[in-house]
Hints:
Blueprint: H1 3-12, E1 17-21, H2 25-38, E2 42-46, H3 48-54, H4 56-70, E3 74-81, H5 84-93, E4 97-100, H6 107-124, E5 129-134, E6 144-145, H7 159-169, E7 173-176, E8 184-185, H8 194-203, E9 209-212, H9 220-228, E10 231-236, H10 238-254, H11 261-264, H12 266-284
Parallel strand pairs: 1-2, 1-10, 2-3, 3-4, 4-5, 5-7, 6-8, 7-9, 9-10
Amino acid sequence: xxxxxxxxxxxxxxxxxxxxxxxxxxxxxxxxxxxxxxxxxxxxxxxxxxxxxxxxxxxxxxxxxxxxxxxxxxxxxxxxxxxxxxxxxxxxxxxxxxxxxxxxxxxxxxxxxxxxxxxxxxxxxxxxxxxxxxxxxxxxxxxxxxxxxxxxxxxxxxxxxxxxxxxxxxxxxxxxxxxxxxxxxxxxxxxxxxxxxxxxxxxxxxxxxxxxxxxxxxxxxxxxxxxxxxxxxxxxxxxxxxxxxxxxxxxxxxxxxxxxxxxxxxxxxxxxxxxxxxxxxxxxxxx
Length: 287
Ligand SMILES: [Zn+2]
């Protein structure tokens, strides 16, 4: 099945595919170990920064090799690629999924650039899934925010504009601003706008999946309700980074003599894998 078909089935069955970001081999192993254990397909994301650190061609080849060797299914996504050129570079390197994020640009420029990426991707391979984004998320970075995060109603995505954006760009997936924001906030509880999610789901063509960014730090109840209302794909990054860095700090504090890199990482991989397992479980639990 193509990603479009997979997400369509998830939408119908009120389940979601987890999207997890990586910036190194250990994070990739943790996610793929969880995917193998659950027998679930996962999406692996690399932002522009993560992709440049890892190498686009290199990460495509690495994931392909793991999937073949371990019998797991993982789809690599170019997450938040913020220019047409960067998106094209990912397509040329063999990414099966692209998120072109021109949400900071005016509406017409966002449509023109996103449409250009859809055309380029689908000319190369009609099965490449392209995601577009419309609306303003209050934060960009996958990190822990200390202060309060203010989500302004005027920044949220209007369902009618979403429908126009999707029709004119031809995207396969759509990322709205529905109360979500990137990262985790110590002083703000994430509150999703479920009616807006439902209205967006109703107005979009049914084969276009709704993607929720900034899943980290959102309560289980909120995420499950979002899935019920039509979200089929949820992004988790900060929770993995927090698990990774906490476990590594603890290991190094407990084992100051250790100098062998691969001996430092089993507990780190375990910590990240645990987060992925819990999230995949939550996203695929159909009740
Ligand atoms: Zn995101």
